[in-house]
Amino acid sequence: MDDSLKNLLSRYSLDELDLAQSQTQRAEPIPDRSPSSGSLPVATDGNSTYVPPHRARSKTQKRNANGRARNGTFAERSDHREKVKDKQGEAAEEETAAKLAQRRARFATSDKAGSNQRHKQHEYGLVSRGEDKRLQESEAAREEYFVYILSQFIRFTSAHSSVELSEAFQKTRDSDPENFRTAQSSAEEDSSQGAPNITMDSITLSIRKLRESLLGLPPSPFHKKVFLFSVRISHYFSHYQTYISSIRYLLHNESALNLAEFEVEEISVILVLHLCNVNNDPSSAIAIFYKYIPHRQDIATILRCWVLKDFYSWLKIYNEVENSAVKSMMKLGLQTMLNWMVRAITSGYYTLQKEVIETNFLPSDLPYAEFAARYNISWHEEENDMITIRSRVKKWSR
Predict the structure, then answer these.
(1) Is 352 in contact with 345 (CB distance < 8 Å)?
(2) How far is it, in rounded angstroms, from Cα 71 to Cα 63?
(3) Is 388 helix (H, G, I), strand (E, B) or coil?
(4) I want to staple 183 with a disulfide (CB 3.0 to 4.6 A). Which of 35, 151, 158, 372 is the partner?
(5) Model's pTM, two decimal places?
(6) How far apart are the first and last CA of the chain?
(7) Mind listing the pLDDT tens digit of every residue in the chain (398 residues)?
């Protein structure tokens, strides 16, 4: 330092140490002004405000502390956002899987609907309920629907074989061979395509829809086919709501329908046995018998057994009868006859051999053990196959 400068400093009483410190501060580099810098810059130009070092440190420390706090909050929020995103992702995946499942189900339903399109074409309502009048208005629809019902019946009999169904199958085929052949081809096609299973209830409902569409129309040969078919398939399954109304219609329009003698006999036998065995109305049954089938002595014997409560003769006929229609109608009165038998045997016998009971007083297809369980009788079976009907009452002597 030159002498003139020292004199100047001495004149204003400035310390050389402060001067040295000021020179040192001027020699320091200007701090970084970038946002990442951890300290505030000390302005040295005239356009900026001077910040003392102790205040600069305090603000820097506060900013660092606030930054750490904010960084922690941001981290927590980031974790929360990640969890929300995960949940949203899972929900989106589940929604996508659900939509795919619905899509597969929709296409599966469409495929099934396509295979059953022919069946949906034959979905009709009941005329009596005002649901549908298409069958009533279209003869072609009625003819086609009858063939469809025949095909359903053929499919049902192929899956449920029995003597009664075989007899109904044979009668239906013999009475209407042309429609039967068409229906059989349709039934084979449905079976090969895996069409839905057929139940007797669905067939019965379908034939009812067809019958109702015919009631307001003049009797015709088509009426005859439909109502005879209704009787033949329904009485085997004790569906009296179908066969009774169909028989009444056929007998009422006997002349207009040009019923053959064997057809009148067939339906009259069913009606007589129903009135006797189901309605327990032998007087009405006898009236129908003498009007339509007075030559059927087997039916007359059954009526006589019912009037006299002759369970022994009635059960003998039941075990030996070969006519499926008669057997199926007698079966409807079996429980009543067995109840009469139990009361008569209980009041007339103390003991009987089990073989005697099974041979003379029970249906051939009903073993004694099943009979005792079904009717909850008070008889007791002993070890020697002896059945104790009732115990003897001991009299005390005085």
Answers:
(1) yes
(2) 12
(3) strand
(4) 151
(5) 0.66
(6) 165
(7) 556 555 655 655 555 444 444 444 444 444 444 444 444 444 444 445 555 555 555 555 555 555 554 555 555 555 656 665 666 666 666 766 676 666 555 544 444 444 456 566 778 888 888 777 888 888 999 999 999 999 988 888 888 777 777 777 788 788 788 887 888 888 877 766 666 778 888 889 999 999 999 998 999 999 999 999 999 988 888 889 899 999 999 999 999 999 999 999 999 999 999 999 999 999 999 999 999 999 999 999 999 999 999 999 999 999 999 888 899 999 999 999 999 999 999 998 999 999 999 999 999 989 998 998 888 888 988 888 899 988 877 666 55
User: Would you call 122 helix, strand, or coil by DSSP?
Assistant: coil
Render the burial of 349-360: b for 16+ CB within 10 Å, e for the rest. eeebebeebbee
Cβ neighbors of 267 (< 8 A, separation 6 or more) are 228, 231, 246, 247, 250, 251
